[in-house]
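Q: Joint fold for the lines below.
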Amino acid sequence: GAVVSQHPSWVICKSGTSVKIECRSLDFQATTMFWYRQFPKQSLMLMATSNEGSKATYEQGVEKDKFLINHASLTLSTLTVTSAHPEDSSFYICSANGGGHEQYFGPGTRLTVT
Amino acid sequence: GEDVEQSLFLSVREGDSSVINCTYTDSSSTYLYWYKQEPGAGLQLLTYIFSNMDMKQDQRLTVLLNKKDKHLSLRIADTQTGDSAIYFCAESIDNSWGKFQFGAGTQVVVTP
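A: Joint structure:
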């Protein structure tokens, strides 16, 4: 089946630095990818829709200048958490649409900001 | 509060049936989904149901939808230890493929 990978799987960074998370569709092309954030024992919260070749669409309450999304190719979307703070520590998950109901999720990236 | 609600934990004995319940609020959702999350792996689509259906069966999985009460359930027959995971209920948002409102997830633990 189709696979979506994320890199890194776990990252620790210092407060004030920026960190980039990659999401790749390994064997299919995805014009649209989605970024979610998951807190422990809570649901996945949709952050933004990443559109290849155009600007991302952010959900209400998500700071676009804080969470920079770039979807430069049909197989890669990146999420950059800028000037990270401890409250940005979370589990970030991306997904890519393989057509219709086939939505493939990455394994997630755990971000810890110290 | 969340728009999709699930109980957080379910313990079931191997061989028994599991029933995971979910309530949602957006009556305009065209599709409703069940996803499975295992440690270290991405969410895996288990099944989905169109909003004008009452029931869908797929091997050991049975989905029941009560649209009037906005209630969705997933029944797993003959539960196995490999079914231990977190199960997420999700409704589609804006009728967009891949855009979901998820519940908090139900941790299912299968005991021998």
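Q: Anything notable?
A: The interface with chain A takes residues 2, 4, 8, 31, 33, 35, 40-45, 48, 88, 93, 96-105 of chain B (CB under 8 Å). The radius of gyration of chain B is 13 Å.
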